[in-house]
Amino acid sequence: MITTYAKFPQGWTAHSRASEMRFPAGECHVTTDKVLDGETPLYLYLTGADANDFVTAAMWIDYAHQGGHKVTALIPYLPGARQDRGTPFGAKVYANLINAMAADEIVCFDPHSEIMPALVNNLRVVYSDAVIKKVLRKTLADYAGVICPDEGAHARTEKVAAALGLPVYYAKKHRDFTTGKLSGFECEALPATGKFLVVDDICDGGGTFRGLAAATGLTKDRLDLWVSHGVFSGNAAALNDHFGNIYTTDSHPGAANPAVGATVSPLIHHLLEGRNS
C-alpha cells in the first residue's frame, strides 16, 4: 500500500496531485494534474510486499524528480529480507527493485538481518529499541524481563532489553529447513513472578511464538509479544491463546488482521525522527 505526503515537519498533508492507475495492458502508472513547487520535500510511505506497489512508487518518484523534488521513501518492511541466503537470492532481487526506484533516501525499520540493508542504496535504518520504549512507556514497569525467541534474535533482543533496562532470558528452537517445521522449543528458567515481553522482528503464522509460549509454561497474563512487522497469516489468531497483549506496527497490511487484534502503532514519525542508524 502506498501513501504520499508533503509539508513535513510543519504538518503532514496527503499529496493528491498524483493518483495511481493501471493501463488496460497491465502496466502501473500515475496520473498528475501539475507538479508541486520543487522546494516542497516529498515522502512516500510504502507498506507490505506487493511488487506492483514498488513499480507504482518508482513512477511516482520519477514524477516528483521531474518536478525538482527530493523524495524520501519510507519502506519499513523490506520485502525479501528473510530470503538472505540460498538460491534464488531473494534479498538481492528485492534490493535491486528498491534501488531502481531511485529515491534520494530509503528508510526501513528493524530489518531481519544486516544482509539486505547492505544491498540497498541510500538506506537509513531505524531500529526497534527506541520505538518499543516509546510505545510501551506506560507499561514498562509491569515487565520483569525480555525473552529472546531464538539465536537469530540475540542482537535485536539484547539491544531492546538494554533500552528498557530489563534482563534477557533466552529460548531456542529447531527448524527443519527442508520442510520448514519447527520443534525442540526450550526456554531457560524464568522468575516465578512478573510479566515478560517476547521480542522479535517478524510474525507470520505465529508458530514460533506459540511454541515458545508453551515452553515457558507461563499463562497469557504473564506473557506479551512485540513483533516489529505483523504479517499475521494462517493461524496467527491462535496467538491470543498464549499472549495477553500483542504489539506491532503498521509496516505491513497484515498487522490489521482483526482476528489477531494486535495493538498497531503507526511508524511514520518514528521513521523520520529516529536518527539512530
Overall description:
There is one protein chain. By secondary structure, the protein is an alpha/beta fold. The chain has 2 domains: 2-126, Rossmann fold; 129-273, Rossmann fold (3-Layer(aba) Sandwich). It contains 6 helices and 15 strands. It has helices at 51-66, 90-100, 128-135, 154-164, 207-216, 268-273; strands spanning 2-6, 13-14, 18-22, 28-32, 42-46, 71-74, 105-109, 123-126, 143-148, 168-175, 182-187, 195-203, 223-230, 245-249, 263-265. The strands form 3 sheets. Strands 11-10-9-12-13-14-15 form a 7-stranded mixed sheet, sandwiched between helices. It has a 6-stranded mixed sheet with strand order 2-1-5-6-7-8. The model has no long low-confidence stretch (mean pLDDT 89).
Strand proportion: 25-35%
Number of helices: 6
Number of domains: 2
- Helix percent reads 10-25%
User: How confident overall, as mean pLDDT?
Assistant: 89
Could you please say which CATH topology of the largest domain applies here?
Rossmann fold
Set out the fold topology.
Layout: E1 2-6, E2 13-14, E3 18-22, E4 28-32, E5 42-46, H1 51-66, E6 71-74, H2 90-100, E7 105-109, E8 123-126, H3 128-135, E9 143-148, H4 154-164, E10 168-175, E11 182-187, E12 195-203, H5 207-216, E13 223-230, E14 245-249, E15 263-265, H6 268-273
Parallel strand pairs: 5-6, 6-7, 7-8, 9-10, 9-12, 12-13, 13-14, 14-15
Antiparallel strand pairs: 1-2, 1-5, 3-4, 10-11
Helix pairs in contact: 3-4
